[in-house]
Amino acid sequence: MKAIVVGLGGRGRGWLKDCMANPDVEVVAAVEPFAENKNRASSEFNFPKEKIHDDLSTAIKKAKADFVVDVTPPAEHEKVALTAFENGLNVLGEKPLSDDFDAAKRVVAAGKKAGVKHMITQNYRWNGQPRTTRKLVAEGQYGPVGQLDISFYMSWADIPGSHYVNQPYMFLTDMGIHHFDMMRYVIGQEPETVQAVTWNLPWGWHKGDAAQIVVFKFPGNLYASHRAVGCTLGKRTGWNGEWRIETQKGTITWEADKIFHTQEHRADPQVRTEIPQVTEGLGGPPQLLKDFVQALKDNKQPECNAEDNLKSMRMVFGALKSTKEKREVKLSEL
After folding, report:
1. DSSP single-letter state for residue 277
2. Are strands 258-263 and 271-274 parallel, antiparallel or unpaired?
3. What's the pTM?
4. Chain-centre distance of CA 187, in angstroms?
5. Residues 6 or more apart from 280 whose CB is under 8 A from it?
6. What domains sit in the chain, N to C, each tagged with a CATH number?
7. Is the bond into 286 cis (omega within 30 degrees of 0)?
8. Please, which pLDDT band fits residue 163 given cuts at 50, 70 and 90?
9. CA distance between the termini of the chain
10. Considering the chain, what is the average pLDDT of its residues?
11. Do residues 59 and 87 lie in contact, with contact meaning Cβ atoms separated by under 8 Å?
12. Could you give the C-alpha distances from 318 to 79, 229, 250, in angstroms and in order?
């Protein structure tokens, strides 16, 4: 499969490296307007400068490709995707699908019309905790789920001047998409409503709110909460957060990098068991790239395809609407 990597900043160079390391992928071109990034990519990976172009249209004309890897800022994702779709190219795009929900809907519609594959790199799904817990919930091993609570505390995005620090609601829209996507992935259902409150701690370094409580209502009166602080100066959680799932037979909890089943009600046998995690198909960008290429070969929709990811984005923008308008929002409004 022949690829064009669009964007050669720090993360883009990582994707260039992963693509070059994959035996099923040939990088036929790259796109980067800034000379410094061009030179760095060329010197670090011995990638020919003549194959690095200033814009995607030129790269497509110069090199025959099967797909585009989009590692541009979120505001550029629509332009990159539409250019790729117009030329019949599939897209593997960094999250989020867009920084604008209407733009995200346009991209999904355009991809469907073009008949191409579009996958979003929602990489938090590709580790043992969500993979294992999804399987446990789907099998109903511990009975139905009644409630899900996520706690997430991190000294997040503390580089002065970055867009994470300077733009409003970045904690909700950036980290939120990871955890909200895992919510619906693990539970296997789509939420109906959302109510969110966001604020800043007095010492917070973000322009936008970096603390939040978000509550989603799923079918069957199942509630899921996300309680988080992005500017903690104290004890931190892992990047997945600490999860607590209430079931009819006790709790499933994520504690550090482990999963436990606990049952302590006096009417039941006492249980405290670590749950073995699945080990197949896990990893970061190399595994996502492998799965995407396999989906192209099999002519099937990849996991985290754009149409599916739009549902996770609806959770983010529904929460954003809720905190701005100070009310519960039906996600059907979006």
Report:
1. P
2. antiparallel
3. 0.95
4. 16
5. none
6. 2-116 (3.40.50.720), 125-282+314-333 (3.30.360.10)
7. no
8. confident
9. 36
10. 97
11. no
12. 24, 19, 31
